[in-house]
Structure prediction request, 421 residues.
Amino acid sequence: MKNKTATPQLRFPEFQEEWEERKLGDFATLITEKAGENKHILMSVTVGVGLLTQAEKFGREIAGNSYKNYFVIKYGDFAYNKSATKQYPEGYIAMYKGQGSAAVPNSIFICFRVEDNKVILHFLDHIFSANFHGAWLRQFITIGARAHGALNVDTDDLMKMPLSLPSTPEQQKITDCLTSLDDLIAAQSQKVAALQAYKKGLMQNLFPAEGESAPRLRFPEFEDAGEWEERTLGEAAIFSKGKGISKADTSPNGLHPCIRYGELYTRYKETITTVVSYTNLPLDELVLSQANDVIIPTSGETEIDIATASCVLRSGIALGGDLSIIRSEIDGVFLSYYLNNAKKKDIAKLAQGIAVVHLYSDQLKTLNINVPAKPEQQRIAELLSALDEEISAQGEAVAALKVHKKGLMQGLFPSMNEVQE
Prediction:
């Protein structure tokens, strides 16, 4: 290995000295203490989150008889999870930030401890969370034949990993900068979570509860409007089906906008104004939407997921196969929110199948619904749509901050690709 001192592209003006290249094993030691008969918190790793208790991740502890062989880690220790994921194909290294002692499975993790006061733990954590270690580990990885996605990384090779480190003051300055950005991302994420929780609680009160014919919360102008009208969905709407549009039938430069049933699970929510797919199939071979149509997939993986309704706000969009089209005088946005939330469990009960779940129009027609007058429908639809727009905007702010952090880290740290043999 030819040593090479690397420096980052972006630096604070008060720091000019070169960074020192050190091997991980120069300042870290493997943890070999095992749990034995002592009781510790059982941990596992979630990519992008870090070390979590097994109770948080799995809902229970799953150690079993192998517990005595689990390694014991403490605050500031690191655990390398030798499992390939899309985000971390070379494995994920997480720092334990909990208090007290914890045990992690020794068969999956390599655990190590840093006891060098010239290395700031949170600085090292930022390096690992950005996956700068991936470029080094990639050359040693072979996929285990019996372990699904497990990586056979030799411990010695992990400890030989070269890392470029600046002086302790520069480490601290970079750590403070990135930690402040992490705090901002966390605060923004909490804002999104709070809005989502508010929306969930609001919908529980804006739609009638099971067995009731009026909601608990109403706009002032509708407080004396009486109970919502009860009928079946079949009495309130006309049903039809979309027509097959395979993935091969779509084209980025297609002439006609289209919606395929799988996109309701992955790309759309309660309203659809713009589409992500286009097709060049002839118009006479397509089923086209009318504004205010509500569409629901007729097949899915689980009963609860299949209750996924979206209102198409534009006419002339081709609707693919495996889509039930619900056309009525009910405000489509209101109906989508209503079906996706207050009626979700009722719809799930109508679905049939095991490996693949099906939901047919004849089943949906039997669904009992309660509907207010059109003005109240529209007020509810407007409120929930506005709330979703705010949630989406705040979520985009989180995504923008994460992109900013990624770009900042690429400038603040030298690339591991600069390490040459």
Summary: The radius of gyration is 28 Å. The first strand starts at residue 20 and ends at 23. Residues 20-165 form a domain with the Adenine-n6-DNA-methyltransferase TaqI; Chain A, domain 2 fold (CATH 3.90.220).
